Every structure is written in C-alpha cells, then in structure tokens.
Amino acid sequence: MLTLYLISTTLLILAPGPNMLMMIALASSHGAQAGRIAALGLMSGVLVHTLVATTGGSLVLQQWPSALYAIRVLGSLYLISMGGRMVWAQLWAASTITARVPVNRTPYMQGLVSSITNTKTLVLFVSFLPQFMDIQKSIAGQFIVLGAIYAGLTLVIYGLIGSLAGWAGTVLQRPLVQRVLRIMAGCVIAGLGVWGVW
Predict the structure, then answer these.
(1) DSSP secondary structure string, 177-192?
(2) Quick one: pLDDT band at residue 96, thresholds 50, 70, 90?
(3) Distance (Å, rounded) from C-alpha 157 to C-alpha 151?
(4) Closest by Cα among 146, 106, 110, 105 to 126
C-alpha cells in the first residue's frame, strides 16, 4: 500500500492546478532559485493541511469508525468528478489557463499562500488519505505519516519543477501544453477515484 500511495501521491502532485501554475510562472520569471524557495512554501502549506486533516479527520473516524468506508466512497466519487470536469473543460471548453504571480511577496510566502488557499488540497487529504488507512491503527498517526510523506514529495517534486521551469517555463506555459497536461491529470485523478471505489 505504501508503494501505491507514493505513486498515487506523485501523480496528484504532478496534476496541473493552481500550485503548478504558480510555480511555473514564478520560476520562469524569477529563476530556478525562486522556484526552489517557493517549493518550501508549498511544503509548509501541505503541513498546515495535514494538521487540519489530522485534527478533524481523526476526530470523525474515532467517533464513527464505520465512516471510513463512506469517506472512501464519497472521496472516490469526488476524485472521479474532479477528473471528469478537468478533462471536459479542456476538451470542450475554450477557456485559457493563466497564472498570476502577485508582487511584493517573497517566493516562500507565495508558495505558502498558494498552498494554504488551495482548498482542493484539504479536500483531497480528507477524501484521498483515508483510502490508505487501517481503522484498527491510530488514525491521527496515519494522517501525520501520510501527510508528512505528501509534504516531502511536494518539496522534491516542486523543487525539481522550479529548477526545470527556470529554463523551460515558456514552453510549459503554452496553452496547448497546459491543455494536454490537464487532460492527462484529469484522467489520472478520475482513475484514482475509480480505483478507490473498486
């Protein structure tokens, strides 16, 4: 299950979204070093989401252990819905994808704010992490361990993306490239949801 969690989490982190767009825009305009510093901010934001999910999620599951199955099913349906909407929007919508980098904010704070305000991360925590939990063991402990792994992967992956975007950012920001990446991400997220229901 740990190997599957690592693979699934990596795919979720790589899925284009607000954090990815922020990282590409920041690193391509301010350099690889700024991207790596922003990755620290993104990791810190994930740790904040981990704390929130640990507190709320563990309380719910300790009071109602049978709720784990319901959370898994609802979380899987949410992932399928999210992935389906991403694919639909890119195949049939004419909307363009843009990324804005607020001024007067350090790369670290930009990453932290982007991560904390990305409510999808918290929802994913609540819907995705329980699929890898054992109700017979400490729920809070599992949230912390899985969240810490997520945070570590966030730092490594976004750190690499920040470095790469320093020289390839203009290519990655092209609308067609972003559209293809979002379609792929939508398929991956929906696939994880199907796996959770199965």
Answers:
(1) HHHHHHHHHHHHHHHH
(2) very low
(3) 10
(4) 146
Structure tokens at 194: 């199907």
Q: Is residue 108 exposed (0-12), middle (13-18) or buried (19+ Cβ within 10 Å)?
A: middle
Q: What type of residue is 188?
A: V
Look at the block and give the residue holding tokens 């810190």. Answer: 44
Q: Would you state the structure tokens that stand for residue 77, as one six-digit string?
A: 């349906």
Q: What tokens appear for 166 in the block? A: 């320093």
Tokens of 50: 């981990």
pLDDT in tens, 63-81: 666 665 666 676 667 667 7
- Return the residue matching tokens 């989490």: 9
Query: Rounded to 5 degrees, what angle do the CA atoms 21, 26, 30 make?
Result: 160
| Residue 183 structure tokens | 């379609």
